[in-house]
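Entry type: protein chain
Record version: 2
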Amino acid sequence: MKGRLWRGSGLVILAGILLLAVAEARDADWTELNPEFEGAAFVKDSAVCAECHAEVMAPFAKTTHARAFGHSPQGELEENNCESCHGPRSKHAEEPDAGLAISVEQFSTVCLQCHQDDRRMHWQSSLHKTTEVGCISCHTVMEKRSDTALLAEAEQAKVCSDCHAGVIAKLNKSSHHPVREGRIDCSSCHNPHGGPNPGMLVQGTTNETCTSCHQEKRGPFLWEHPPAREDCLTCHEPHGSNNRFLLTTQSANQCVVCHQYGGHVNEYRYNRVSTPYGNGCVNCHVAVHGSNHPSGAKLTR
Protein backbone atom coordinates (compact mmCIF):
# COMPACT_ATOMS: atom_id res chain seq x y z
CA MET A 1 0.00 0.00 0.00
CA LYS A 2 2.78 2.40 0.98
CA GLY A 3 4.64 1.61 -2.22
CA ARG A 4 1.56 2.39 -4.31
CA LEU A 5 1.16 5.74 -2.52
CA TRP A 6 4.78 6.64 -3.29
CA ARG A 7 4.31 5.69 -6.93
CA GLY A 8 1.13 7.80 -7.09
CA SER A 9 2.90 10.78 -5.54
CA GLY A 10 5.73 10.36 -8.03
CA LEU A 11 3.31 10.46 -10.95
CA VAL A 12 1.72 13.67 -9.62
CA ILE A 13 5.15 15.30 -9.25
CA LEU A 14 6.18 14.15 -12.74
CA ALA A 15 2.95 15.58 -14.21
CA GLY A 16 3.66 18.91 -12.51
CA ILE A 17 7.19 18.99 -13.90
CA LEU A 18 5.88 18.26 -17.40
CA LEU A 19 3.33 21.07 -17.16
CA LEU A 20 6.03 23.50 -16.03
CA ALA A 21 8.20 22.42 -18.94
CA VAL A 22 5.33 23.05 -21.34
CA ALA A 23 4.63 26.48 -19.82
CA GLU A 24 8.26 27.63 -19.99
CA ALA A 25 9.06 30.18 -22.70
CA ARG A 26 11.30 28.78 -25.42
CA ASP A 27 13.13 30.74 -28.11
CA ALA A 28 12.15 30.03 -31.68
CA ASP A 29 14.76 28.76 -34.13
CA TRP A 30 14.55 31.68 -36.53
CA THR A 31 16.93 30.21 -39.09
CA GLU A 32 14.77 27.10 -39.28
CA LEU A 33 11.70 29.27 -39.86
CA ASN A 34 13.41 31.25 -42.61
CA PRO A 35 17.01 30.63 -43.77
CA GLU A 36 17.31 34.38 -44.49
CA PHE A 37 17.73 34.92 -40.74
CA GLU A 38 21.14 33.24 -40.94
CA GLY A 39 23.74 35.66 -39.54
CA ALA A 40 21.17 38.18 -38.25
CA ALA A 41 21.55 39.53 -34.71
CA PHE A 42 19.09 41.08 -32.26
CA VAL A 43 19.17 44.89 -32.33
CA LYS A 44 17.28 45.06 -29.00
CA ASP A 45 16.18 48.65 -29.57
CA SER A 46 12.55 49.32 -30.49
CA ALA A 47 13.49 52.91 -31.36
CA VAL A 48 15.26 51.57 -34.44
CA CYS A 49 11.99 49.91 -35.54
CA ALA A 50 10.03 53.11 -34.83
CA GLU A 51 12.16 55.09 -37.29
CA CYS A 52 10.34 53.37 -40.17
CA HIS A 53 7.27 51.88 -38.48
CA ALA A 54 5.95 54.81 -36.45
CA GLU A 55 2.39 54.29 -37.74
CA VAL A 56 2.47 50.72 -36.38
CA MET A 57 4.08 51.57 -33.05
CA ALA A 58 1.33 54.01 -31.99
CA PRO A 59 -1.56 51.49 -31.94
CA PHE A 60 0.79 48.76 -30.67
CA ALA A 61 1.55 50.86 -27.58
CA LYS A 62 -2.03 50.23 -26.35
CA THR A 63 -1.75 46.44 -26.42
CA THR A 64 -1.00 43.93 -23.69
CA HIS A 65 2.23 42.89 -25.39
CA ALA A 66 3.53 46.48 -25.48
CA ARG A 67 2.93 46.87 -21.75
CA ALA A 68 4.59 43.53 -20.98
CA PHE A 69 7.59 44.00 -23.22
CA GLY A 70 8.14 47.70 -22.63
CA HIS A 71 7.35 48.17 -18.93
CA SER A 72 7.83 44.83 -17.18
CA PRO A 73 9.71 42.36 -19.41
CA GLN A 74 10.09 38.87 -17.95
CA GLY A 75 13.40 37.42 -19.08
CA GLU A 76 15.57 37.94 -22.13
CA LEU A 77 12.88 36.90 -24.62
CA GLU A 78 10.54 39.75 -23.69
CA GLU A 79 13.44 42.17 -23.41
CA ASN A 80 13.91 41.75 -27.16
CA ASN A 81 10.66 43.71 -27.55
CA CYS A 82 9.69 43.84 -31.26
CA GLU A 83 12.21 41.15 -32.06
CA SER A 84 10.55 38.74 -29.62
CA CYS A 85 7.94 38.18 -32.34
CA HIS A 86 9.70 39.37 -35.50
CA GLY A 87 13.08 37.75 -34.95
CA PRO A 88 16.60 39.23 -35.09
CA ARG A 89 16.43 42.31 -37.32
CA SER A 90 19.99 43.54 -37.78
CA LYS A 91 19.98 42.54 -41.46
CA HIS A 92 16.56 44.12 -41.94
CA ALA A 93 17.71 47.37 -40.28
CA GLU A 94 20.66 47.55 -42.66
CA GLU A 95 18.64 46.73 -45.78
CA PRO A 96 14.85 46.87 -45.26
CA ASP A 97 12.89 44.44 -47.40
CA ALA A 98 10.39 41.58 -47.06
CA GLY A 99 13.05 38.87 -47.14
CA LEU A 100 12.52 37.86 -43.49
CA ALA A 101 8.80 37.18 -43.84
CA ILE A 102 7.29 34.04 -42.26
CA SER A 103 4.00 32.25 -42.88
CA VAL A 104 0.83 32.16 -40.75
CA GLU A 105 1.75 28.68 -39.50
CA GLN A 106 5.29 29.80 -38.65
CA PHE A 107 3.95 32.74 -36.67
CA SER A 108 2.16 30.21 -34.45
CA THR A 109 5.57 28.76 -33.59
CA VAL A 110 6.66 32.26 -32.62
CA CYS A 111 3.62 32.76 -30.37
CA LEU A 112 4.25 29.41 -28.67
CA GLN A 113 7.56 30.75 -27.40
CA CYS A 114 5.55 32.21 -24.52
CA HIS A 115 2.02 30.86 -24.80
CA GLN A 116 2.63 27.27 -23.72
CA ASP A 117 0.09 26.93 -20.91
CA ASP A 118 -2.28 24.00 -20.44
CA ARG A 119 -4.98 25.45 -22.74
CA ARG A 120 -2.54 25.35 -25.66
CA MET A 121 -0.70 22.10 -24.98
CA HIS A 122 -2.78 20.32 -27.65
CA TRP A 123 -2.27 22.96 -30.35
CA GLN A 124 0.08 20.87 -32.49
CA SER A 125 -2.63 18.24 -33.09
CA SER A 126 -5.62 20.57 -33.06
CA LEU A 127 -8.23 20.77 -35.81
CA HIS A 128 -7.45 24.44 -36.32
CA LYS A 129 -3.75 23.88 -36.90
CA THR A 130 -4.32 20.96 -39.25
CA THR A 131 -6.66 23.15 -41.35
CA GLU A 132 -3.98 25.85 -41.64
CA VAL A 133 -5.53 28.22 -39.11
CA GLY A 134 -2.83 30.03 -37.14
CA CYS A 135 -2.66 32.32 -34.13
CA ILE A 136 -2.77 35.46 -36.29
CA SER A 137 -5.88 34.13 -38.05
CA CYS A 138 -7.83 34.95 -34.87
CA HIS A 139 -5.59 37.37 -32.96
CA THR A 140 -4.23 40.77 -33.96
CA VAL A 141 -1.02 41.45 -32.10
CA MET A 142 -0.19 44.93 -33.37
CA GLU A 143 -3.34 46.76 -32.28
CA LYS A 144 -6.06 46.46 -29.70
CA ARG A 145 -9.36 45.53 -31.35
CA SER A 146 -10.85 43.63 -28.43
CA ASP A 147 -10.78 43.81 -24.64
CA THR A 148 -10.08 40.08 -24.55
CA ALA A 149 -7.00 38.18 -25.71
CA LEU A 150 -6.07 40.58 -28.54
CA LEU A 151 -8.79 39.06 -30.72
CA ALA A 152 -9.03 40.26 -34.31
CA GLU A 153 -12.62 41.42 -33.69
CA ALA A 154 -14.33 43.06 -30.73
CA GLU A 155 -16.51 39.98 -30.13
CA GLN A 156 -15.28 36.41 -30.05
CA ALA A 157 -18.27 35.10 -32.03
CA LYS A 158 -17.41 37.49 -34.87
CA VAL A 159 -13.91 36.00 -35.05
CA CYS A 160 -15.33 32.48 -35.23
CA SER A 161 -17.96 33.49 -37.79
CA ASP A 162 -15.30 34.14 -40.42
CA CYS A 163 -15.04 30.36 -40.83
CA HIS A 164 -18.06 28.99 -38.98
CA ALA A 165 -20.79 31.02 -40.67
CA GLY A 166 -23.28 28.14 -40.45
CA VAL A 167 -22.92 27.89 -36.69
CA ILE A 168 -23.33 31.63 -36.24
CA ALA A 169 -26.51 31.49 -38.34
CA LYS A 170 -27.94 28.96 -35.88
CA LEU A 171 -27.16 31.31 -32.99
CA ASN A 172 -29.55 33.79 -34.59
CA LYS A 173 -32.48 31.37 -34.38
CA SER A 174 -35.27 31.95 -31.88
CA SER A 175 -34.00 29.38 -29.38
CA HIS A 176 -30.28 29.73 -28.79
CA HIS A 177 -27.56 29.86 -26.20
CA PRO A 178 -26.95 33.46 -25.04
CA VAL A 179 -23.85 34.04 -27.15
CA ARG A 180 -25.13 37.07 -29.01
CA GLU A 181 -26.33 38.51 -25.67
CA GLY A 182 -22.75 38.30 -24.39
CA ARG A 183 -23.44 35.94 -21.48
CA ILE A 184 -21.26 33.13 -22.87
CA ASP A 185 -18.72 32.80 -25.69
CA CYS A 186 -17.81 30.06 -28.13
CA SER A 187 -14.88 29.25 -25.84
CA SER A 188 -17.31 28.52 -22.99
CA CYS A 189 -17.88 25.16 -24.69
CA HIS A 190 -14.94 24.82 -27.11
CA ASN A 191 -11.20 25.21 -26.70
CA PRO A 192 -10.05 26.88 -29.95
CA HIS A 193 -6.46 25.86 -29.22
CA GLY A 194 -7.27 22.16 -29.37
CA GLY A 195 -7.77 19.29 -26.99
CA PRO A 196 -8.23 15.54 -26.70
CA ASN A 197 -12.03 15.82 -26.69
CA PRO A 198 -14.39 15.60 -29.70
CA GLY A 199 -15.26 18.93 -31.33
CA MET A 200 -12.54 20.63 -29.27
CA LEU A 201 -14.95 20.60 -26.31
CA VAL A 202 -13.65 21.95 -23.02
CA GLN A 203 -14.92 18.81 -21.24
CA GLY A 204 -14.45 15.16 -22.11
CA THR A 205 -17.92 14.60 -23.58
CA THR A 206 -20.89 16.60 -24.83
CA ASN A 207 -22.87 15.78 -21.68
CA GLU A 208 -20.04 16.86 -19.38
CA THR A 209 -19.81 20.13 -21.26
CA CYS A 210 -23.56 20.74 -21.09
CA THR A 211 -23.94 19.82 -17.43
CA SER A 212 -21.12 22.13 -16.40
CA CYS A 213 -23.88 24.77 -16.64
CA HIS A 214 -27.05 22.66 -16.58
CA GLN A 215 -26.18 20.85 -13.38
CA GLU A 216 -29.77 19.99 -12.46
CA LYS A 217 -29.85 17.66 -15.47
CA ARG A 218 -26.67 15.79 -14.59
CA GLY A 219 -27.99 13.10 -12.30
CA PRO A 220 -27.47 10.38 -11.24
CA PHE A 221 -31.20 9.72 -11.17
CA LEU A 222 -33.20 6.90 -9.66
CA TRP A 223 -35.06 6.62 -12.97
CA GLU A 224 -32.89 7.37 -15.98
CA HIS A 225 -33.98 8.51 -19.42
CA PRO A 226 -31.37 6.64 -21.53
CA PRO A 227 -31.15 9.09 -24.47
CA ALA A 228 -30.62 12.02 -22.12
CA ARG A 229 -28.01 10.05 -20.19
CA GLU A 230 -26.19 9.02 -23.36
CA ASP A 231 -26.00 12.24 -25.36
CA CYS A 232 -27.72 15.62 -25.03
CA LEU A 233 -27.46 16.01 -28.82
CA THR A 234 -30.02 13.22 -29.25
CA CYS A 235 -32.72 15.80 -28.58
CA HIS A 236 -31.02 19.20 -28.62
CA GLU A 237 -29.26 21.32 -31.25
CA PRO A 238 -26.61 23.15 -29.18
CA HIS A 239 -26.02 26.13 -31.48
CA GLY A 240 -29.63 27.12 -32.02
CA SER A 241 -33.05 25.95 -33.17
CA ASN A 242 -36.41 27.39 -34.14
CA ASN A 243 -38.00 24.89 -31.74
CA ARG A 244 -38.32 25.54 -28.02
CA PHE A 245 -35.53 24.51 -25.67
CA LEU A 246 -33.07 23.99 -28.54
CA LEU A 247 -34.97 20.83 -29.55
CA THR A 248 -34.06 19.25 -32.87
CA THR A 249 -37.76 19.01 -33.80
CA GLN A 250 -41.09 20.18 -32.39
CA SER A 251 -42.02 19.04 -28.88
CA ALA A 252 -44.20 15.94 -29.34
CA ASN A 253 -42.39 14.93 -32.52
CA GLN A 254 -39.19 14.77 -30.49
CA CYS A 255 -40.56 11.96 -28.33
CA VAL A 256 -42.43 10.10 -31.07
CA VAL A 257 -39.15 9.59 -32.93
CA CYS A 258 -38.44 6.82 -30.39
CA HIS A 259 -41.72 6.21 -28.55
CA GLN A 260 -44.25 4.91 -31.08
CA TYR A 261 -46.95 2.89 -29.31
CA GLY A 262 -50.23 2.30 -31.11
CA GLY A 263 -53.18 3.76 -29.22
CA HIS A 264 -51.08 5.66 -26.68
CA VAL A 265 -51.99 9.31 -26.15
CA ASN A 266 -48.77 10.37 -27.79
CA GLU A 267 -50.42 9.59 -31.13
CA TYR A 268 -51.75 12.90 -32.43
CA ARG A 269 -55.17 11.53 -33.40
CA TYR A 270 -55.83 10.53 -29.77
CA ASN A 271 -54.67 13.63 -27.95
CA ARG A 272 -54.94 17.13 -29.34
CA VAL A 273 -52.44 18.58 -26.88
CA SER A 274 -49.81 16.27 -28.37
CA THR A 275 -49.82 18.28 -31.57
CA PRO A 276 -46.64 20.12 -32.53
CA TYR A 277 -48.24 23.26 -31.06
CA GLY A 278 -48.71 21.92 -27.54
CA ASN A 279 -46.44 20.50 -24.85
CA GLY A 280 -47.45 17.01 -25.91
CA CYS A 281 -45.73 14.24 -23.99
CA VAL A 282 -44.24 16.51 -21.33
CA ASN A 283 -47.75 17.39 -20.14
CA CYS A 284 -47.48 14.08 -18.25
CA HIS A 285 -43.83 13.04 -18.49
CA VAL A 286 -42.42 16.17 -16.87
CA ALA A 287 -39.04 14.79 -15.77
CA VAL A 288 -37.66 14.13 -19.25
CA HIS A 289 -34.02 14.18 -18.12
CA GLY A 290 -34.57 11.71 -15.26
CA SER A 291 -36.48 11.41 -12.00
CA ASN A 292 -35.60 10.77 -8.36
CA HIS A 293 -39.23 10.33 -7.29
CA PRO A 294 -40.07 6.79 -6.05
CA SER A 295 -43.09 6.75 -8.37
CA GLY A 296 -41.29 8.31 -11.32
CA ALA A 297 -40.57 5.18 -13.33
CA LYS A 298 -42.39 6.71 -16.31
CA LEU A 299 -40.73 10.09 -15.66
CA THR A 300 -44.14 11.51 -14.72
CA ARG A 301 -42.92 13.20 -11.53
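Comment: Residues 1-24 have pLDDT under 50 and may be disordered.
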